[in-house]
Specification:
Elements: E1 16-19, H1 39-48, E2 54-56, H2 69-82, E3 86-91, H3 97-106, E4 112-117, H4 119-122, H5 126-139, E5 143-146, H6 154-158, E6 165-168, H7 174-182, E7 188-191, H8 202-210, E8 215-216, H9 224-232, H10 238-252
Parallel strand pairs: 1-2, 2-3, 3-4, 4-5, 5-6, 6-7, 7-8
Helix pairs in contact: 2-3
The structure holds zinc ion.
Length: 258
């Protein structure tokens, strides 16, 4: 019998800070049975894995149909009061003033983690809007979750806004690690979500370079079992694994995750 590997005895269930789902919007993400994107599927996956805290923006709100963002934010904002495991990223498109107004209202909710931006799918250059976005986030002491774009430019941009925090999603490049190291106020973070964390030493290398406290656990709807196992069974220390899987999230979002 092969049973000499067991999971570490973690003291808290993992917190997935980066996910999405479809909910029947005409602007949902297309998919098939190989990569299911529906709410019920995720609910059963998280239930099965005993995960009770997941940070979400709907798929429709981060894809190319930016006309639905306001409606999608409203939809999710209602859902967080109904579904205990669902936490919200409020999506801002800097070209739509109304999304700023929404964020201003929604950020005070204890289950809203911060602001999500997706310059690539929304079709703008972050360098044209970073100052305005980061200034807004700074004023609200908010966390911004950004799909990566112009990563190497981020430290000099956030250096002017020490009260905000920027998570550059999808750890996978040296630029991610350098950005964390170069932020003068230590306010750049990354997450393990997406496919790039399948690189066999990326997370371990990042921890060696910048420590484990700036790296957060996320799935971006990829296999939870893979994403969790990638960290739980890695060569990282128990303390480093705990930091990434849940502890950093409780420090970064004290209002949401007590
Ligand atoms: Zn994502």
């Amino acid at each position: 019998m092969y049973n000499n590997i067991s999971l570490p005895d973690f003291t808290h269930s993992p917190i997935d800070i980066h996910s999405h789902f479809n909910h029947g919007s005409i602007f949902d993400c297309s998919g098939d049975e190989r990569h299911i994107r529906e709410f019920d599927f995720f609910e059963s996956v998280y239930h099965n894995a005993n995960v009770s805290q997941v940070g979400i923006s709907t798929f429709a709100s981060v894809l190319e149909h930016t006309e639905c963002i306001v409606e999608e934010n409203e939809y999710l904002h209602k859902l967080i009061d109904k579904k205990e495991w669902v936490y919200q990223w409020v999506v801002i498109d800097p070209r739509q003033k109304e999304t700023y107004i929404q964020a201003e209202k929604m950020l005070s909710h204890s289950k809203v983690l911060g602001i999500k931006i997706h310059p690539d799918y929304h079709g703008y250059n972050i360098l044209d809007y970073a100052d305005e976005l980061f200034c807004f986030a700074n004023k609200h002491k908010a966390v911004v979750l950004m799909h990566p774009q112009h990563i190497s430019k981020m430290p000099s941009l956030v250096d002017d806004y020490p009260d905000m925090k920027l998570i550059i999603a999808h750890l996978g490049s040296m630029e991610h690690i350098d950005a964390i190291a170069n932020a003068r106020h230590g306010n750049i973070y990354t997450d393990t979500s997406g496919g790039a964390s399948n690189l066999n030493n990326i997370i371990e290398y990042a921890v060696k370079q910048v420590g484990s406290q700036k790296i957060l656990f996320g799935t971006d709807t990829y296999s939870y079992a893979f994403q969790f196992g990638r960290i739980a069974l890695s060569t990282l220390s128990f303390e480093e694994k705990e930091n990434i899987l849940w502890k950093n999230a409780t420090n970064l979002f004290p209002k949401a995750f007590k």
